[in-house]
Q: What sequence folds into this?
């Protein structure tokens, strides 16, 4: 017997929403780590919750910080650059493809499991990417 399908809509109960956020965040970070290990790609995941707290996972956080900290604001890719709303799945898919494509151009150095969760510096706020 398979898992039952859930309806994809915002969870109204705040306690249930926070519990789901924590579980899904952990699952997403695990899948990102697995993807990086299996494909040898650098993977970057940034999540911002409803309280504006940012959580991140990166196969190499130092490279992530150095790569995006010194980029000119005019060269940064933002959701509006894809021509759709930031919340649509198509935009997220396009953005993910652009990031994965950009990271594959650089040689893989060392794969580390940085699945510890920490806040990102202000340089990585959602409006500056």
A:
């Amino acid at each position: 017997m398979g898992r039952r399908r859930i309806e994809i809509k915002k969870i109204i109960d705040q306690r249930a929403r926070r519990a789901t956020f924590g579980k899904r965040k952990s699952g997403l970070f695990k899948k990102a780590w697995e993807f990086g290990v299996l494909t040898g790609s650098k993977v970057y995941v940034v999540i911002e919750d409803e309280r504006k707290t940012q959580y991140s996972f990166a196969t190499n956080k130092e490279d992530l910080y150095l790569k995006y900290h010194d980029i000119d604001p005019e060269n940064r890719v933002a959701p509006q650059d894809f021509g759709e709303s930031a919340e649509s799945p198509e935009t997220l898919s396009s953005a993910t493809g652009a990031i994965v494509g950009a990271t594959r151009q650089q040689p893989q150095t060392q794969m580390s499991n940085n699945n510890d969760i920490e806040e990102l510096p202000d340089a990585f706020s959602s409006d500056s990417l």
